[in-house]
Amino acid sequence: MPLDSSSDIFGLADILFSLPNERQARFGRIFHLSSTVGQVIPPDAMEDWITERFGSVDAVGAQYVIKVTNQVTMEGALFNEVRSMWSPTPLSPEQIAEATEPKGGDPFCDPETLTPADTFSQDGDTPGRVRGQYCITASSLVKLDGYHGLVIFDEHDPLRLTQARLDDYLDVAWTWAELAHQEDPQARYYLVIWNCLPCAGATLVHGHLQMLLTRDVHYPKVEAWRRAAETYRQTYGEDYFNDLFEVHTDLGLGFASEGMRVMASLTPVKEGEIIIMGDAEDYAHPGAFSRPFKRALFKALDTFINHMDVTAFNVAIYCPPLGETSEAWRGFPIIARLVDRGNPCEPVSDVGAMELYAASVIRTDPFRVAEVLLDRFKE
Hints:
The chain contains twelve helices and 13 strands. The protein is an alpha+beta fold. α2 packs across α9 and α10 packs across α12. It is globular.
C-alpha cells in the first residue's frame, strides 16, 4: 500500500479494514489493535496553560488512545493523540554544538595510550587492536561480557557521519568479531550497539560503537525474537520476518531498498523506531555486513540526524551466530533497530516505569517517520 500523507496512526483501524481479507488476517496473526477514550475534566485555573500547549481545552477533554501489541514478540506501544501534539522544540545549532563538543579531551582522543587493548589483534603492527581508516578498536575497561570491545571513531562528534565512515566502523566491528571468534570458537553470538550521547547511555560523547560476543545463548532480547519467529513458523507455516515486513508494507510503513527491508515500526520501543532487515538467504553465515545493509543503515541514520532533528539515538544490530548452534536460526536475518532518545538538553528521561515494565508510550507517529524515511531513500 503506498504511503498516503494523510494517513496517521490514529486512523490505523480504517487503513486495516480497507485491506483485502487475507492481508487483514496476516496483520491479525502478528498484531492486536485496540482503542479507548480517556476523559478528563480540567479545572478553570488550567485553561490558559492547556490552551497554550494543546490549542484548546476541548482538545484534552476526550483523548483517543490506541494500543498496538505484537502478539509474537509481546512488544507493544500506546499512542495518545494529545501527546502527539506536544512536540519538543528542536535543538539550535548552538545547543547541538554544546552537546557534542569536546570537554577538555577524553581517553578516546588518544585510544592507543589511554584505552585497554584486546588479547587478539589484526596484525603485529598494533597489538590488541583492529585499525580502520577512520577508527580503531579498544577493549572495554568495564566488561559487559567476556568479549566486549569498542570501535572508537577518529571523529569526536558522533553526528558527523558519512557513508565512508560508517562503512569503516562496521567493517572494523566485523573484523573484531571474527578475531574474537577465532580465539574462542564457543563465543559465537554477536551484537553491535551504538549509544549516541549520554542521554542515550553513552559514557562519553566521543563517537564509538560497542561490540559484544557471548557464549551459550544469544542475548535475551535477540533470543526472544528467535524463539518467537520459530514458534510463528511452527504455528502458521510462514516466515515471521517476511510477514512482519509485509504487514508494514500493507499499511504504508515499509518498503524495500536494494534487498533490504525497511520499516517504521508499528510497535516502537521508543520514539521513531526504524527497523532494517536483510535477506535471510544472504545472511545465513555472513562474512561481513553487506554493502546494501551499510547503505540502508547510513540512510536511516542520516534521516534521523539531518531530516528529523535527532541528536541522541540508540542503534542495535542483531546478528545470527557466527558458528553452528543447536537451536534453529533459519530465516533469521541481520536486523538493525534505531530509536530516537529525545532532547539531550532535557533533564527528564524519556524512559519511565511504563517502558521498563509495561508498554512503550509513544509520541512520534510511525506514519510520519515512514514518510520522511521513504523520501530520503528515494534520493
